Amino acid sequence: MSIREKYRQFRQWQKNPLDFKTDTTQHHCLNCGEQFTGNYCPTCGQKASAGRFTWKSVRQSVLDLWGLGSRSLSYSLWQLLWRPGYLMRDYISGKMQVCFPPVKMLIVVALLVSLSGFVDTGGEEGGYMGNDWLGYVLDKILSQMQWAMLLLSLFFILPTWWVFRSAPHCERHTLPQGFFVQVLFCVQFLMFLCLGLLLLSWAGFEDQEVANLYVMLIVPVLYFIDYKQLFGYGWWGTLWRWAAMVTMGASFLLMTFILINNRVELMSADGQKLWVQLMPKLFMLLMLVVSSLTVTDVFNRKRWQQWGLWPVVLLLAGVALLTLFSVMQTMG
What we know:
- Helices cover 67% and strands 2% of the residues.
- The chain is built from 15 helices and two strands.
- The termini are far apart.
């Protein structure tokens, strides 16, 4: 078999990995005595495969305890490695049996990451969130990578909905669907984080700066790959929408962090002076959000797409990203 044929089969598997078959065998339900055909008893719902207890039954019970049985966790993680966007599309479109429950999967994976201790999520607490109770709680959350990633990804739900709401493969994309997309993205991120740090450790790169650079690189790459598969746009269509989504999400994130980080000082007697210092940053970020909203709304219309204005969009996205980096540098 040629490489091209193998790649074609792989692409077919990405788009449709499951092949459901109807069981036409006659079964006798051991629970209620019903005679039926299919995978489950229509009277009581017991599985047709239920029978005498064997060592396979013991193994399946142990696997079910850890979420490795029906809709197995391991198979869902495998799909997140090789077809993440397609899996997200399947799940939010109603094919819930193809995936382990996302929120439960995130909790299990995050717990495993915490217990393994492989990912170094420690850090100095209280260094960037102030000394009030809200800052203390956020410090605790952000000191754990698995929970911090979920908190940070929530800022991208609204921008994702706005930018991709007219996507060819998700025309009725909603905010609740966006929540599950971000949860699955967090699980995928944790997997690549552990695998990447493991490879870096084997290669002898154990510097924290290298690990931070790796995290900064994989997050936008994973978002781009996931959204291309999920929403069905081409390379250029996904690229400029991805840039707009990142701009809006990062702007929301930075504005929130600026306000929370200075929450106590802003409510003090000298808060007015601090407001004067922060207003340029907040205004710049707000203008980025408004500009991104306007640009994506205009260029999502087909008559503008036909004019071939992609270089203009990419230039605007580049300016927006440079502005974000400059604001982040001024924040320290």
